[in-house]
Amino acid sequence: MGSKNKLRRFKDNETFSNVIQPSREEVVSQSFEYKGQWNAQYFRNDNPIIVELGCGKGEYTVGLAQKYPDKNFVGIDIKGARFWRGAKTALENEMKNVAFIRTQIELVDLVFGEDEVSEIWITFPDPQIKYKRTKHRMTNPEFLDKYKHILKPEGLIHLKTDSEFMHGYTLGILQGLNHKILYSHHDIYVNHDADKDVVGIQTFYENQYLEQSKPITYIKFKLN
Fold first, then answer.
1. Whole-angstrom Cα distance, residue 214 to residue 164?
2. pLDDT at 110
3. What is the pLDDT of residues 125-170, one digit of tens each?
4. Residue 167 and residue 217 in contact, taking contact as beta carbons nearer than 8 Å
5. DSSP code at position 42
6. Among 126, 145, 187, 193, which one carries the catalytic annotation?
7. Is 46 annotated as catalytic?
8. Sequence-separated (6 or more) residues with CB below 8 Å from residue 199
9. Which are the contacts of 220, defined by CB distance < 8 A and separation ≥ 6?
10. Residue 56 pLDDT exceeds 90
């Protein structure tokens, strides 16, 4: 994407009613206005909140929101030029149950309040394979603690990835911490009992991986 295109998208995002761009200082200082108030202050309903972490172009945020108008969806990514596409689509379709927030994923527990979220989708995260990068893996114990804080007691987490490493690493972490694995498969497109939400929505990157014949893995789990 050219720099002119990026600049145009950044400017668009500033005018989009469904894009929220708090400063890091605002979030870290606990003064972010929607924390614990997403239903009351933003969506203005009591519907369940589903969060997509590292939402990219927002395919899951928008795709699930179209399918479930009685639920609220928030896509999080630090790259606003990417989720511009999802935000624009949601506005064009007058979708009131979609929001995008530009912030770092490690601040997720400062963006949402305790027990505020019903489900989390982690779609094609960077596996951070090198040992020194383990702190950035989105299913490491530190991140899981953040998710547990914002999730309702029966809240669900979905991990969809092309990385066999990330799939195996996450299974090991979940088993080691006695979390509840509800479903797991190393290739969802050859396994016909996968949930329709998992195979029915494909991201931009997922399509690229499928063209390369890379298997797509999936885990659904609850935190104990």
1. 10
2. 97
3. 999 888 777 888 999 999 999 999 999 999 999 999 999 999 999 9
4. yes
5. I
6. 126
7. no
8. 188, 189
9. 156, 157, 158, 159, 181, 182, 183, 184, 195
10. yes
CA atoms within 13 A on the CB side of 188: 25
190 beta partners? none
Q: What does the pLDDT look like over 10-50, one tens digit per residue? A: 898 899 999 999 999 999 999 999 999 999 999 999 999 99
- Neighbouring CB atoms inside 10 A of 69's CB total 11
Residue 77 phi/psi, 5-degree rounding, is -160, 150
Residue with tokens 């893996």, as numbered in its chain: 137
Which residues are paired to 52 by β-bridges? 75, 121
Residue 123 pLDDT class (50, 70, 90 cuts): very high
Instruction: Tokens for 12, please give them.
Output: 């668009």
Look at the domain 3-222 and name its fold. Answer: Rossmann fold (3.40.50)
The whole-number pLDDT of residue 205 equals 87
Question: What's the pTM value of the predicted model, to 2 decimals?
Answer: 0.94
Cα separation, 116 vs 4, in Å, equals: 38
